Amino acid sequence: MHNYTIAELVKGLQSKKFSSVELTQHFLSRISQFNDQYNAVITVTADQALQAAHLADQRLAAGSAPPLCGVPLLHKDIFCTKGVRTSCGSKMLDNFIPPYNATVVENFEQAGVVMLGKTNMDEFAMGSSNETSFYGPVKNPWATDCVPGGSSGGSAAAVAGRLAPGATATDTGGSIRQPAALCGISGLKPTYGRVSRWGMIAFASSLDQAGPMARTAEDCALLLNCMASFDDKDSTCVDCEIPDYSASLNKSVKGLRIGVPKEYFSEGLHSGTEAAVRTALADLEAQGAELVEISLPNSNLSVPAYYVIAPAEASANLSRFDGVKYGYRCENPKDLQDMYCRTRSEGFGEEVQRRILIGTYCLSAGYYDAYYGKAQQVRQLIEQDFVEAFAKVDLILGPTCPSPAFKFGSKGDDPVAMYLEDIYTIATNLAGLPGMSVPCGMVEGKPVGLQIIGNYFDEARMLNVAHQFQQVTDWHTQMPKGIS
Amino acid sequence: MIIERHEIEKLATLSRISIDEKTITDVTERLSSVLDLVDQLQTANTDSVQGISRPFQVSQRLRADDITESNHRDEFQAIAPATDNGLFIVPKMID
After folding, report:
1. CA pair distance A189, A155, nearest whole angstrom
2. Dihedral (Cα; A125, A129, A133, A136), 10-degree rounding
3. B77 pLDDT band (50/70/90 cuts)?
4. A6 touching B, CB under 8 A?
5. DSSP secondary-structure letter at A293?
6. Which terminus of chain A, N or C, has fewer Cβ atoms within 10 Å?
7. Tens digits of per-residue pLDDT, A399-424?
């Protein structure tokens, strides 16, 4: 059952080939058997899952169940789950049990989706390797000595390792697309404002966006149908029509204009990754798409702009963790200042502290204009590059990451080397555009991701192209060694 | 860009983060390397460019000033580090 896609599981549940309880038991058993190899799941909600599966079976039997009813899923541990620990991968929230559900979690619960548990992640979603989690690193199912990417590495490894057919994730600078690429699965970051951020622990509020991870584009469409909703509780959620993302998957790509940014194929791109991406582009050209070379001239400034804007927002967002109302508090504080300082130094890991310090620096008197003001102007330039590109093309395609999964510790001492992992993904977050990664090849036995960037709210077209690509290729069906 | 030790100490105070003597050199070096990266921004010509704080000029909605939430004090206090009689307890500030 673990090799079925979500679309196949939906059919199986609706035709009574298997029940939701059987399916849930199967995946819980896989988590119990294999999670030690990957460290992808940090909380298992077995009793709650079986209870939800029973209810889903009743709804399915009554014949009025929503499409995803009975399908098991994992949630990234950044989404608040009522009564279930939500740690955000941090010691700071190791004891935090939210009294409410995030809107994304609520949408899935209303649809009868069964939560199997919560996935590991980089602490407060700050990282590209999952090495910053308080609960230890996640291992890549394709090569357990390599990182799965981050910050949604637990979700990606769980889907790749067949511990769940799909998972929720979030993306602030590439945290859905980069781990999806490194783990050989499909993942989509929607347009900023498409999915509610309510109940999703904030890292950088003008960049964060939630999205689905699954093995296929077709499955991502099914999950996005449930995740996307207008939510009054998120003041940045955009109230515009939400299409049925499954409806246009089978459209032909003939005549589609695909922009290929020359800056995404320059120095620093692994030759094997480049070859795989160029072959994928040729596959789409063979299906009738037209390739158009484009330029995104300010893309080299996306990483520097991001590492001002994201830490600046993080330093403000994370000021709420003070040991007063919830989360970790240090032992025996001698006064209030001591409580604040020790709570935050003991509760936050090194990378989170570094980003808070950078953010505070960039926002402090004397530096605000030179850093934060300048980064906001560069953000405008980057957004404008995309606006001009989308006047000429329908989609933009290129690599998701510069190279395949790297070994643990190989970038540990150099934060900048790690930050450059997201060189091709960050610009879309700054512009608020949707981006997706689908598997498109293998290098040294490890997966390569093809990135698909769409215009605002054009997720349906991205999913259509990804699905059509997966009709003529089999990269998305390949499995890590040891899984049968 | 080299960031000075006294600047790190000031940042730590502003951020309410304690940095111990053993790690302050490492923290300073790593922060300097990140600031070298962000200094590349200065190469961009941004004359007459209006900065943006969120994507595609999306504006935040305002809502009517109505009470929409019921009282969840007990639920929230149940997850607090220290409470007493409906209050959040912190170390004594005034002797």
Report:
1. 14
2. 160
3. very high
4. no
5. E
6. C
7. 999 999 999 999 867 888 888 889 99
Coil, strand, or helix at residue A448? strand
List, in order, residues 6 or more apart from A3 with CB less than 8 Å away.
A162, A479
- Phi, psi (5° rounding) for residue A435? -140, 155
A432–B56: do the CB atoms touch at under 8 Å? Answer: yes
Active site residue A20: no
Token couple for B94:
């005034």
The rounded distance, in Å, linking the Cα atoms of A229 and A95 is 30
Interface touch B38/A379, C-beta < 8 Å? no
Residues forming a β-bridge with A453 = A396, A435
A412 touches chain B (CB under 8 A): no
The angle at the Cα of A267, spanning A396 to A418, to the nearest 5 degrees, equals 85
CA distance B69 to A247: 37
Cβ-defined contact of A335 to B91 (cutoff 8 Å) = yes
Tens digits of residue pLDDT in A34-46? 999 999 999 999 9
- Enter the ipTM: 0.94
As beta bridge partners, residue A73 has: A115
The distance of B37 to chain A (nearest Cα, Å) reads: 6
Distance CA(A337)–CA(B13), nearest Å, equals 10
Q: Taking Cα atoms as reference points, which of A200, A202, A222 lies closest to residue A212?
A: A222
Helix H or strand E segment including A81: none
What's at A363, amino acid-wise?
Answer: L
Copy the structure tokens of residue A44. 């298992």
- Please give the structure tokens belonging to residue A418: 């790690």
User: Three-state DSSP class for A51?
Assistant: helix
Domains, chain A: 6-248 (3.90.1300.10)
Q: How far apart are CA A186 and CA A217, in angstroms?
A: 6
Work out the burial of residue A46: count CB atoms within 10 Å of its CB; fewer than 13 is exposed, 13-18 middle, 19 or more buried: middle
CA–CA dist A207, A230 (Å, integer): 18
